[in-house]
Amino acid sequence: MKLARRTFMAGLAALTARPAFAADMLSLDQISTYLNSFTTAQATFRQRNADGSVSTGRLFLKRPGRARFEYDPPNDALVLAGGGQVAIYDNRIKQRPEQYPLKRTPLNLILERKVDLSRRSMVVGHSGNATHTSVVAQDPEHPEYGYIELIFENAPVRLAQWTIDNGAGQQTLVELSELETGVELGARMFNIVQETAERTGQ
For the chain, which terminal residue's Cβ has fewer other Cβ atoms within 10 angstroms, N or C? Predict the structure, then answer.
């Protein structure tokens, strides 16, 4: 369980904002429009953790508020976001997951029903060049929850990676590939209650 928590939490990250601005970078409105243009997505990911280790797996998103991270062996963990909670499962042992509120993680910002990055105090960094745009965002009411830095490719617009800081100095970089949007994803994939019952028999 500790390994799974370290992989995910040491694993969600934000870097400081890049200082240079470019006229051809994406605007906040363009990025918000892109994120709001789909409710579901799936991708493969490569995660570089704070300790230098690397994990891989599959990611599934279903806005609002749902995500599923399926980690490949040997990590073999599962992280679910749904019902306002995040649950971390260690697939090597059958026990109840560690849980905490989704709103306590910076990832919650891109899982909102309607993303509006221009909202007051949310964006603390915005920079880019002709090919990529960086946005650093935080919950304006709870900056102690950490930051998320999102990197987008400009043309066509595509979410390429993010780095998350969980507020305790633990940082992780997640790089996405084979990103598909508008895919069919069942509600069961994000149901923490059902997942826990199947794993524990309770």
Answer: C
